[in-house]
């Protein structure tokens, strides 16, 4: 099957400033591809290149088997921009009806169904919508015509947890139907929960593409263990994946790279009364991948 996205050497410079450099990537049909990176890493530049909002400095890209400049491709895509400009006096429902007509006719029942799922009030004038409600309208317009390919830029910004949960459920339904999603984010948890593969971009360069299981292997977590009595430091020293170890009486603080198996086995020799495990530190994952990529380039240059 033809890849939904085929990019080779895709590069974009804004004057002397690098937006994206040498992106080579394929996204397959029916795949949810998470695109992770800090703000300013090049995520939005990538999405705009795929949509032909901007043109590349060099390199090639095909979307749904065609040149992004082909206007027929755009009708097959649903897009949620990172910054959604919704102004004017018209009500949200009228705006969505208009878009539905432009896209060849979207049943009003479909718009209402999505509005209910996202708890969106479409009777409000767009200029009066809150940030969260603007995001809901943006999601409705992206999903409502059931596109083959969804491109979502920071889709959960401004949404409350219940609506975020509903959004992720809808993304899973899209995958089940055989359609494709590219979702950019700086939030690891939401991308990890639905994606098949994840690309990590930093400073305009794609530094890794991993399946989600491999990403979890490299996750960095901070852990606290509290025991019913003081424990010896020697019991936790030199454990695989454990670093930044601090033992203070009956408490152990450390950072774990990857699986916590060795730490859990060591802790099981004592009586654990409380354990705290922080969410994986995404910035540390970025730094790990970025450092690995830099070392790879250094080896290539010295070879």
Automatic annotation (TrEMBL):
It is a peripheral membrane protein. It is found in: Cell membrane. Its main location: membrane. GO terms for molecular function: ATP binding; ATP hydrolysis activity. Residues 5-228 form the ABC transporter domain. Transmembrane segments: none annotated. One of its GO terms (biological process) is response to antibiotic. Keywords: Antibiotic resistance, ATP-binding, Nucleotide-binding, Transport. The keyword Transport applies. GO terms for cellular component: plasma membrane. InterPro entries: AAA+_ATPase, ABC_transporter-like_ATP-bd, ABC_transporter-like_CS, ABC_transporter_ATP-binding, P-loop_NTPase. CDD domains: ABC_DR_subfamily_A (cd03230). It comes from the Bacteria. Belongs to the ABC transporter superfamily. This is ABC transporter ATP-binding protein. It comes from Nonomuraea zeae.
């Amino acid at each position: 099957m033809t890849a939904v996205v085929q990019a080779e050497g895709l590069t974009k410079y804004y004057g002397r400033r690098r937006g994206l450099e040498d992106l080579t990537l394929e996204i397959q049909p029916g795949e949810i591809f998470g695109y992770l990176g800090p703000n300013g890493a090049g995520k939005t530049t990538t999405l705009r290149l795929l949509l032909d909002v901007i043109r590349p400095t060099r390199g090639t890209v095909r979307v749904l088997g065609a040149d992004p400049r082909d206007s027929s491709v755009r009708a097959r895509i649903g897009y949620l921009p990172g910054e959604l400009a919704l102004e004017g006096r018209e009500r949200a429902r009228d705006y969505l009806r208009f878009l539905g007509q432009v896209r060849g006719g979207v049943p009003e029942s479909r718009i209402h169904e999505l509005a209910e799922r996202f708890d969106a009030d479409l009777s409000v004038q767009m200029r009066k919508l809150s940030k969260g409600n603007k995001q809901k309208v943006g999601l409705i317009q992206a999903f409502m015509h059931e596109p083959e390919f969804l491109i979502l830029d920071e889709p959960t910004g401004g949404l409350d947890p219940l609506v975020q949960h509903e959004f992720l459920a809808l993304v899973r339904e899209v995958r089940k139907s055989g359609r494709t999603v590219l979702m950019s984010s700086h939030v690891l948890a939401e991308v990890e929960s639905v994606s098949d593969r994840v690309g990590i971009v930093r400073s305009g360069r794609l530094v890794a593409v991993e399946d989600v299981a491999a990403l979890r292997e490299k996750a960095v977590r901070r852990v606290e263990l509290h025991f019913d009595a003081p424990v010896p430091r020697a019991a936790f020293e030199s454990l695989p994946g454990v670093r930044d170890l601090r033992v203070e009486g009956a408490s152990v603080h450390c950072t774990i790279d990857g699986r916590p198996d060795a730490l859990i086995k060591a802790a099981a020799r004592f009586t654990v009364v409380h354990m705290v495990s922080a969410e994986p530190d995404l910035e540390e994952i970025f730094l790990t991948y970025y450092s690995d990529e830099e070392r790879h380039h250094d080896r290539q240059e010295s070879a």
